């Protein structure tokens, strides 16, 4: 057993990361029921769909500011405040009496998610170093994928009884609040380290550019990747696979593969390195999108999305780990805020990018373009990181 998993702080950070996957996906099964519940509102079809994307937009806007706040105030206070806001705003859909009010609560939920994500990611950088940091980022992504499966399944069961009940799942943050408060202490640099000592850690030369590359890569990855959850269910219907369970199987294959590869990524990253790991992930993503563009059966679609999940499991932990590795400790909150903002902005923009392609090229054509885009990103990332990596650090090192 990995010694890292014996550290309660690692489990606390994984639980905090697991909450973030709930921000969008948990109420998805409730949308038809909510639309019917508020059928007298002429904007109901539009507002119910905004309930999913509203938190992502707020996270994209506020995450850099939340990250900067964790650099100034410490990590614990923003994390704990974020948990309180998450629990209060997330469960508000249980009792609010209009879609407009529920939408406002979802915007407030985005503020809580931004505080939680930036604080917990910065704590990963503060508590752990070297390969352990990369392994934990992989474990976190695995936890979020497993959590996504569990929470969405639970939400589906609850929504079948009452469309409002899935909002109760957000109350998990209130249960975690005392636990995380007890096992996640304030890092030493915020309690005892002087400003002079913090300033003595300048980070890797050119760290700002490397962080910008990682944030851009993360954002573009999600712009393309999010075509899977937003377009694949309709693609399957076009293939004659109209049973909703088919979409569940396809998405489940992707989440399972992402969870497995996220764990493996922390083990193979020392061999593949800063460049080789995300490039390998991009090639797997490209292959998976190519498979979706040519496949016409459920097993083929499951294999294709499994490759997509595996590719994402290689890429995403590396983007965050590399950014944390190169940045000075005093800027880790800002860095994680920028990465977080890029990820959620990519989620928000993805339908705007993919839908015109689907309209003009069809689903197969859109997925084919996605495949080419991932190959192009692999080439661009290789070139830019090779130019950016200092000469005293091997591009394929574990750093």
From TrEMBL:
Its main location: membrane. The chain crosses the membrane at residues 12-34, 46-67, 79-96, 102-124, 136-161, 167-185, 206-228, 248-268, 280-300, 306-327, 334-353, 365-385. Residues 9-388 form the Major facilitator superfamily (MFS) profile domain. SUPFAM superfamilies: MFS general substrate transporter (SSF103473). Coiled coil: none annotated. One of its GO terms (molecular function) is transmembrane transporter activity. It is a multi-pass membrane protein. GO terms for cellular component: plasma membrane. Pfam families: MFS_1 (PF07690). It is found in: Cell membrane. CDD domains: MFS_arabinose_efflux_permease_like. Keywords: Cell membrane, Membrane, Transmembrane, Transmembrane helix. PANTHER family: CHLORAMPHENICOL EFFLUX PUMP RV0191 (PTHR43124:SF3), PURINE EFFLUX PUMP PBUE (PTHR43124). This is MFS transporter. It comes from Paracoccus methylarcula.
